[in-house]
Every structure is written in structure tokens, then in C-alpha cells.
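Hi team,

Filling in the usual template for the complex we talked about on Friday. All components are listed, including any nucleic acid strands or ligand strings, so the model treats them as one assembly.

SUBMITTER: L.P.
PURPOSE: interface mapping
COMPONENTS: two
RESIDUES: 224
SEQUENCES:
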Amino acid sequence: DAKTTQPTSMDCAEGRAANLPCNHSTISGNEYVYWYRQIHSQGPQYIIHGLKNNETNEMASLIITEDRKSSTLILPHATLRDTAVYYCIVRVWGNNNDMRFGAGTRLTVKP
Amino acid sequence: DAMVIQNPRYQVTQFGKPVTLSCSQTLNHNVMYWYQQKSSQAPKLLFHYYDKDFNNEADTPDNFQSRRPNTSFCFLDIRSPGLGDAAMYLCATSRAQGHNEQFFGPGTRLTVL
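RESULT (copied from the run log):
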């Protein structure tokens, strides 16, 4: 069973920030938060991951609450090409077999 | 400069007729994975290879087998496809160590007639 809960769908206006929440209230101390996205008819694509500190890369920012029970993925300036299903996954660093996808959030970026 | 290649992108087979899906990688990664993704569902891990070591998920049906003849190639064999096996099959790779980000191929969509 997936260890995360996410809203089923969200809309965002093009050019605005998209904030995608994820609850992972049962996260263990050695589990990281990962985000992947899947654009229609493509394989999933890694976005970002973090343990407890906030993280930023060229694609997105990841904000993790102090108690680590929830996180938010931020796409600072959403474009139409960011329309995709976004998956929040918790997994242990270095494990090869615990990538458990939940239902994800379908983000639609609108003009 | 494709990194994880899956051929063909679309595969049609008949009920009960064995089918093999192919995956190759140019990343020289230790680990290769196969996922099944049914319509409107999330990907589900079937099994993975860590080098030559095969690791099956507990709920993967016996109908699904895999082969990894070398680092670059991995195959998914479906011995007797049923209608319920129609899905997108995704191959992924990762390094064995570190945060092992997974790199996915574009998938093969399997249709069972």
C-alpha cells in the first residue's frame, strides 16, 4: 500500500506557482520523500527528493514540514508542459524495491 | 541520446500467445526494473534485477518472467497473456547506490486480443 495521500486533481493557471501537497504521516526516520511526474504517454520522470530540509533544483522546490508528516512540491512558474500526474513517494535511501506509486495528483495547467 | 529504450512502443498479441518485451539502457546502471501500469492506474513494480540477481515482488503472477543477459538488456516474458495483462509496461534503471533516481523508458503498450 502507498504510504502517501495526495489530492486527486488540481488546476493551475499558466505562469502561476503550482503547489502540490502530500501527506505522509507514517513516514519513518530513514525514509526520504521523492517526487516523480508522468506526462501523458511517457514514463515517469524524477523531479526532486528530500529528507527533512527544503530542497530546490532547476525543476521545482520541495518543502517538508518540521515533523516530516507532509510536504509540498512547488513548480514556481507552471507551463502547459507541466500538465501531468505528480507522484509523491516515500522510500528508504538506497533501497531498490520500495518505489510504491500512489494514485498521484493530476495537475492541469490552464492558459 | 535516448537512455532507456523500449521496443516496440506498441505490441499486440493474442490471448495465450507468449510475448516478449524488450528494454535496453545506455546508462550502465546496475539495477533494471519492470513496472506494469494499467489504464488510469499508477505504475506497479513487478520485479527488478540488481546486476544478475533477480528480485520478484511477492504478488507478481508466475505468468511474468524476466531475463537479463547482460548489463544493457532486460526482457519481460509473458508466458500466456490474458486479457487482464493488457497494460503499459515500463522499464526503468538506476544506480545501485545513493538515492538511486530511477530513469524510465517510454513504455510498451501491450494489447491482448
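MY TAKE: The mean pLDDT of chain B is 93. Chain B has no helices and eleven strands.

Thanks, L.
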